[in-house]
Design brief:
By secondary structure, the protein is mainly α. It is built from 14 helices and four strands. The chain has a two-stranded antiparallel sheet. It has a two-stranded antiparallel ribbon with strand order 2-3. The radius of gyration is 23 Å and the shape is globular.
């Protein structure tokens, strides 16, 4: 028996084609574009300046490095609330070491070593002691704040530009009109993107984050993956601390307090972009600059100083809600 194909009856309506503009994957880019247009029309003399773009890139480079490091444990299903505390201790230790003439290598190397120690401590609490990652890293964050106060003796450390010129060049020296800190953030983004998208380690991270029990039964060493994710996050935050000090030149016990909410907001909002349903590097970068554009535009428009915390807090709530909605739709 042969198949018979029937032509549509004359005058019958043709099936409608839906135009897919990619709102499910690229809504952040649309919102970002809308914000740029709004502020360009609202405050063109202030917003449409090369100096404004450069300022956003400089200050968001540090936030981007912290957020990129946070992606790794979140991909493995763990929260790392110590990213801001690790950055703070790194800043304070590096400043203390330089102030006491210990040398740049000792200062930077010691800061990165602190990152490794913090990552291993987080892993011990979460993996060995079986403490929930949110609670465990929250407690560790409080300990790190105390350590920062101990290092600085509850005071501010200011490094002079003249006395530590080589160290300041580490982040401030410009290449093609942009400081090195921007290139560091771009290099880390490229590295983590490659790891997550094209290596077995990235697949293991997502597998553990999706279903740790099934991953363990499949032979994946879940504890080791989570441990490595905490170490990667902490070392990245420690490096961000070095870049912060080289950029700002001042260390205080609360240097990193302003980076926790933006990092989590960017990571969770990024999970709704590009690769909806899972944290990813490109989506996080879109979220970082979307949030930065909103905050910068409002500040230039004369908004009060608390607008940054208000904006980031609201963004975190919206990001988590959108991420949960995306997960339910994909389930």
């Amino acid at each position: 028996m042969t198949d018979v194909q029937t032509a549509p009856a004359p005058g019958s309506a043709k099936p409608k084609r839906r135009i897919n503009l990619g709102f499910d994957k690229y809504s952040g880019l649309y919102v970002w574009a809308v914000l740029i247009i709004i502020f360009s029309l609202w405050i063109p003399d202030l917003f449409l300046q090369v100096s404004t773009l450069k300022q956003v890139l400089i200050f968001q480079a540090i936030a981007a490095i912290v957020a990129l490091g946070l992606i790794i444990p979140v991909a493995a299903g763990a929260f790392d609330l110590t990213v801001a505390g690790t950055l703070t201790v790194s800043v304070c230790f590096t400043a203390w070491a330089l102030l006491n003439h210990r040398g740049v290598v000792f200062a930077a190397g010691g800061a990165l070593l602190i990152g490794i120690i913090v990552g291993l401590a987080n892993a011990f609490v979460v993996v060995k002691l079986k403490v929930d990652s949110f609670i465990g890293t929250l407690g560790m964050s409080s300990i790190l704040i105390a350590v920062a106060y101990m290092i600085t003796d509850s005071s501010q450390i200011v490094l002079s530009t003249e006395g530590y010129a080589p160290f300041f060049e580490f982040a401030r020296e410009e290449i093609l009109g942009l400081p090195r800190s921007v290139y560091y953030a771009a290099a880390i983004a490229a590295l983590f993107w490659w790891i997550l998208e094209y290596t077995p380690g990235g697949r293991y991270l997502y597998a553990v984050g999706g279903n740790p029990v099934a991953s363990r039964l499949a032979g994946v060493r879940v504890g080791r993956i989570i441990t490595l994710s905490f170490v990667a996050s902490a070392v990245t935050s420690a490096f961000a601390g070095i870049v912060y000090l080289s950029t700002i030149g001042t260390a205080t016990p609360d240097s990193g307090s302003g980076y926790l909410l933006p990092a989590f907001s960017a990571v969770f909002l990024g999970a709704t972009q590009i690769r909806p349903g899972r944290v990813n590097v490109l989506g996080t970068l879109v979220a970082i600059f979307l949030l930065a554009t909103g905050v910068t535009g409002l500040q230039l428009a004369g908004a009060p100083s608390y607008v940054t915390e208000l904006f980031n807090g609201a963004a975190l709530i919206i990001a988590v809600a959108l991420a949960a909605r995306t997960a339910r739709r994909r389930a």
